[in-house]
Amino acid sequence: MNDLPVPHLVTGVRRETADTVSITLAPAGAEALEPFAPGQFAMVYAFGVGEIPVSVSRIGRRELVHTVRAVGAVSAALCALRPGARVGLRGPFGTGWELERARGRDVVVVAGGIGLAPLRPLVLAALDTRRAHGRLNLLIGARTREDLPYADQVRAWAHSHGALHCGATVDRPSPGWWGHVGLVTTLLNEARFVPENSTAYVCGPEVMIRATARDLLHRGVRADRIRVSLERNMRCATGHCGHCQLGGVLLCRDGPVIGWDRAASLLDVREL
Amino acid sequence: MTSATTLSSALPVEHRDRLMRLAREVSFEAGTRVFEEGRRADRFWIIRTGTVLLDLHVPGRRAAVIESLGHGELLGWSWHYAPYVWQLGAEALSPVRAWEFDAGTVRALCAQDAEFGRSIATWVGRVVAHRLQASRMRLLDLYAPYGSGSPA
C-alpha cells in the first residue's frame, strides 16, 4: 500500500450515464499498486483539484477501472478526463467483499444505482468461480433506465438465463424498459436462493441498504452473512484522520464492507 | 424464501387452504388489460408466474406505470374496501398465470367467519402497508445525486 499517489495514465474513458463515467487507469511508470480485491477502494487524485475515494469497478492485470459520478468538484474533474491524462492513485484500501465467505452457498448481490460499480468485480469473480458457489443472483435498482450503469452488460446478464439470475427494477420506467418497476427489494421474490444457506452483498444508498438487509433478515439470511458497503467522508484512507468514523468503526480501515451484524446498529444512530 | 406479504407466509395454513379452495386458474397473454381504474373491483388474483404492471391513467398521455408485481404477490386490494372500485389499472407485461378469486364470495366468507375475515384483512392490510412504505421510499428519489437528503 502506497502512502504517496502513484502516477497513472487514463487509457480509456466510457460514458455510462449522463453523469457517470468509467475511467480505465494503468501505471504511468514502473511503480504499480498492489492488487485490489473486489470491494476495496483507491484514493484517486485529480491533480490540482483534489482527492476522493473511488471503488474499483473492474480489476485487470495491470489496469483498474473506476466508475465515477460527477457530484462534486473532484468527481466532475475525473469525469472530464480524456485518454492520456494523468491522475494519482493510492491504495488498495479497506475491506473487500470477501467472496470466499459465500463458498458453497447461494449468492445474492443487491445493487442500488451507482452501487453496482463496486459490486461488478464481485459478480465477475463469482461468475469465474461459479462451481465454488450455489446459485448466483444479481438484483439491481435504478432511478430510470437511463441511469442504469453498464446497461449493455446488465441487459446481457438479464437475458442470458445462464449461471446468473439477473433482475432489474427502476423507479420510473421509460418507453422500452424491459424490467420491473418498484423497489429493489421486490426482486427478492423472484431470486433463486435458500436464505438459510446464502450470503448477500449489498451496496447503494443507505436507506436502500437498510431496507434490503431487513428484508433479507426477515427471509432468514443470517446478519453476519449480509455484507454491506458503507460510505463516509474518507480523507486519509489509513485510519488516522477520523473523518470516516461511524460509531467505533473507521470505515476507510475497518470498512467499507462490513457485516450487517455490525452495521445495523451504526445505521440506527441519528446524525446531528 | 418468503416475504411478509406473500400468501404462503401471510395467512395461517387453515385459512390459506380455505381461500385456495375458491381459486380458479387463469392466464393472461402479454398486453392483456386485467382491470381498469375506476371500474368495479369484483375479483382479485395471486400471481403464479409472469409480471403485471400497475398504472395510473394520465389524461392525454400514455398511462404512467407505478409498480410491477410478480410471483406470489396479490394483484388487487380495492375489492376489500368500499367502494370496491379499482384505484389503478393493471396490464400483463408478460404471459401471466394466476389464481383468480371472486371478491364477493371471499367477502361473504369473511363476514360469516370472523377469524377467517381477520386473517384476510390482516394480509391485505399488510400488502397495502408494504406498498405504501415502498412508495414513500421511492419518494426520496434515493438514486438521485444527494438522494435521500443532504449530508448531515
Automatic annotation (TrEMBL), chain A:
Coiled-coil boundaries: none
Keywords recorded for this protein, A-Z: 2Fe-2S, Iron, Iron-sulfur, Metal-binding
Cofactor(s) essential for the protein: [2Fe-2S] cluster
Entry note: cofactor: Binds 1 [2Fe-2S] cluster per subunit.
GO annotation (BP), single: pyrimidine nucleotide biosynthetic process
Residue numbers binding [2Fe-2S] cluster: C236, C241, C244, C252
UniProt GO molecular function: 2 iron, 2 sulfur cluster binding; flavin adenine dinucleotide binding; metal ion binding; oxidoreductase activity
Pfam families found in the cross-reference section: DHODB_Fe-S_bind, NAD_binding_1
FAD-binding FR-type domain: residues covered: 3-99
InterPro entries: Cyt_c3_hydrogenase_gsu, Dihydroorotate_DH_Fe-S-bd, FAD-bd_FR_type, FNR_nucleotide-bd, OxRdtase_FAD/NAD-bd, PyrK_electron_transfer, Riboflavin_synthase-like_b-brl
Name recorded for this polypeptide: FAD/NAD(P)-binding protein
Species of origin: Streptomyces rochei (Streptomyces parvullus)
Organism lineage string: Bacteria, Bacillati, Actinomycetota, Actinomycetes, Kitasatosporales
From TrEMBL, chain B:
Gene3D superfamilies hit by this protein: Jelly Rolls
PROSITE patterns xref list: CNMP_BINDING_3
InterPro entries in UniProt: cNMP-bd_dom, cNMP-bd_dom_sf, RmlC-like_jellyroll
Annotated Cyclic nucleotide-binding domain residues: 7-76
Domain of life (superkingdom): Bacteria
Protein name, UniProt field: Crp/Fnr family transcriptional regulator
Organism per entry: Streptomyces rochei
